[in-house]
């Protein structure tokens, strides 16, 4: 298995980065939809149903599969011989960033259910502020895996 992983390493990493870009596109777009859904949309209106449909499709058809692919390919990279040494700092700081990003993904999932149930209590301002959270995790992850401090 480790010989196979070593032989496909460049492909695994390329597919990992493609899945990361797809996941991040949704992670940064979904909170924007929540900003306008919270500020501009009347509960039960046709626009409310349209926003619910956009949010459901973005999360289920793009973000969930992309997140699963990022994890599977990322773990395949972890088990590729010679790539990760846990005596270094970067794998730990990257892991912290990735767990934070995954938590934020699930937080967005729960907020979608709030809108679905018609009981979103958070303001557009809260979603604008929360939209900055993944930026912090992204900077930590990318500096960890590329600078490898
Ligand atoms: C979900 C769990 C994840 C795991 C287990 C994981 C693990 C890894 C590993 C082991 C590498 C190879 C590093 C090397 O070749 O030296 C890698 C590469 C990379 N990862 Fe992840 N990763 C994960 C999630 C993420 C996320 C969420 C991002 C960005 C938001 C990310 C961005 C990258 C980038 C840009 C590279 C390529 C770095 C390079 O070219 O040297 N990864 N990942």
H/E series, N to C?
Answer: HHHHHH
Strand content: under 5%
Question: Average pLDDT, to the nearest integer?
Answer: 97
Helical stretch count?
A: 6
How many beta-strand elements? 0
Q: What is the rounded Rg?
A: 18 Å
Instruction: Estimate the global geometry from the Cα principal axes.
Output: elongated
Distance between the termini: 29 Å
Q: How is the main sheet built?
A: none
Q: In the residues, how many domains can be counted?
A: 1
Bound molecules: protoporphyrin IX containing FE
| Helix content bin | over 70%
Low-confidence spans: none
Secondary-structure-based class equals: mainly alpha
Short description:
Helix content is 81%, strand content 0%.
Would you give an account of this structure?
By secondary structure, the protein is mainly α. The protein has one domain. The protein has helices at 2-7, 9-40, 46-78, 90-116, 124-130, 133-147. Helix 2 runs parallel beside helix 4 and helix 2 runs antiparallel to helix 5. The longest helix has 33 residues, at 46-78. The relative contact order is 0.16. The model has no long low-confidence stretch (mean pLDDT 97). Residues 13, 16-17, 20, 24, 70-71, 74-75, 77-78, 83-84, 98, 101, 138, 141-142, 145-146 line the site of protoporphyrin IX containing FE.
Q: Which structural traits does this protein have?
A:
149 residues, binds protoporphyrin IX containing FE
What is the topological layout?
Blueprint (H helix, E strand, L loop, with lengths): L1 H6 L1 H32 L5 H33 L11 H27 L7 H7 L2 H15 L2
The structure holds protoporphyrin IX containing FE.
